[in-house]
Model the fold of this input.
Amino acid sequence: MKGIFLTLFVGFLLFIGLFCMRRTKTLNDFFLGGRSIGPWLSAFAYGTTYFSAVIFIGYAGKVGWGFGLSTLWIVVGNTLVGSLLAWLVLAKRTRQMTVRLNTLTMPQFLEARYQAPGFKVFAAGVIFIFMIPYSASVFMGLSYLFERVFDIPYTVAAIAMAVLTAMYLITGGYRAVALTDVVQGTVMVFGVFTLLYYVLGAPQVGGIGQVVSKLQAIDPQFVAPAGPPGWLPIASLVLLTSLGTWGLPQMVQKFYAIKDEASIRPATIVSTLFALVITTGAYFTGSLSRLFFDEMPVDALTGQPNPDLLIPQIMITTLPEWAITLILLLVLSASMSTLASLVLVSSSAVTIDFIQGLNPKLSDGRKVGLMRFFCLVFIALSVILTLAKPTIILSLMAISWGTVAGTFLAPYVIGLYWSKATAKGAWISSLTGLTISIVFSFYVKLEAGLLPTIGVLAMLIPLLVLPLVSMVTEPLSDSHLKKVFGKSFPTKTRVAKNKKVEQV
Done:
């Protein structure tokens, strides 16, 4: 049964890729679907990019094991801040401003917004380098799951997933990703409800009414508001995984591509509900892991405790075969969309933001060909890192997420609303976030428990640096700001000698 469903799913992805290939003629088509993606496609694309194998396999299990029920604060943050507020605050302004500036990517937008030569190349380098460990973390999560559920060797699973991602993404581009996301998102929703049904019904849990008492019997801290580690670690995880999405190029891309402003409201609602369902399923299951294990499962290859095995082991011991197959498709669905978005954004950093800048006369066909080539390069580099297994999934995700969000959050978000933000303010704030994340991550020797806090500092400190620097540096011209902000740019007035108000 598992093999049949998996074959049908893979066949569907490849069919969609080939179907969309004939409509993918220009760079705009390949990267943004021609800016014609409707509300449902946009909402599911946002949600399935947000949540991947990392959350179901590594992240939710490890956090739930350490924090207990206080893990559910992440559900609140991801739903209200990472989804609802992200759409309300960013979507409309982002689409309007990127259309006015004729930009397709985050690096293009930042260079055009701040008239900052070199910013595009700098931003493209950050994206390409630090998206690789994020992508590798997704491949790792998938490979662990296939190894446990299908007995497919880790290496074989990683390479197979890479080939599948390359085949359906390179043929159809973003339009193929968006179309498959609706089906993938639907699978994820049904999978989450199935997972919760069997986990709550397992003898180790005994129903939702027994959760609090059983966790409390193990350790009262597991039902406390902040869990055993305390408020700072859980607050850091909430901020990193919620506010951090505001600065991630693969998330922001969904606002660029949406069809029109009327589509934003329904997309906001669907995306928020989707986040609530998916995060509840993942993190609530993770918070119950102490009920299933007295000690953390040990990796058979390394002989070391591995939190990435918690949820796969729960699935194997709790769910029937058909439900395991559905959950496998859930994780595969979430991961394929995330991988596709990461690969698209990273390859665009080289093609659109670097090569096109050096040779603006490239034809559309040549640009699309280069995008496809660098998609392959990015996937290959991610798989190499995946096979090396440098650290656990949580560390890989925290490093890349914190670094990229720390580099882009301040200049992007403040730049959407504050006309007095300057080029030097944007540069210094980005370099501040990048430096904090890299230097302190290596200073603590990539200690997984400290990486989320470092990522949060890398995001928040630049939000203070940018306005402070902007106040004492040269402002951008009014003519440029009028182009950037359009009608929302505040027009200066003066009183003429004839006492009539003239607009300058």
User: Anything to note?
Assistant: Residues 493-504 have pLDDT under 50 and may be disordered. The longest strand covers residues 493-495. The domain at 2-393 is CATH 1.20.1730.10 (Sodium/glucose cotransporter). The chain has one domain: 2-393.
